[in-house]
Amino acid sequence: xxxxxxxxxxxxxxxxxxxxxxxxxxxxxxxxxxxxxxxxxxxxxxxxxxxxxxxxxxxxxxxxxxxxxxxxxxxxxxxxxxxxxxxxxxxxxxxxxxxxxxxxxxxxxxxxxxxxxxxxxxxxxxxxxxxxxxxxxxxxxxxxxxxxxxxxxxxxxxxxxxxxxxxxxxxxxxxxxxxxxxxxxx
Length: 186
Hints:
Elements: H1 2-17, H2 34-43, H3 62-69, H4 73-115, H5 117-123, H6 134-142, H7 145-153
Helix pairs in contact: 4-5
């Protein structure tokens, strides 16, 4: 009887210390790739706090670990100032690198202006991304709404949004042989 009572109290204390878990919103998942499941569990560990997480999201002894690592307020302040100094140094290095690149680009543009003013003017021409030619307006009249949204969302000169990221394996649904990119008239 006492072992049942002790295990009941232990169970009750564990239930009270854990946050609520949403089981009602769980999606019924079909059989998935075990690699994906392992990656998902590593990236998004569960929020059950009954054991230490390997990804560092929760540790029961975090207070003790901090007290052992940083014994005093002065040590904590010193570490904090050193971290802020490190971040400032990184920021200054990045700003210096950007300034160097900008100066190099400015010199290249000055050289282009000296060599060929027409190319310089073309490189600095402002283009309204919302402006549409007559051919594009005629094409927009023939497209479906989803295709029209894809055409309107694409900014000329940037990477097309409808292209997929290259992967090592094909998608589980297979190849879509009917898909064709929308050709924008220039």
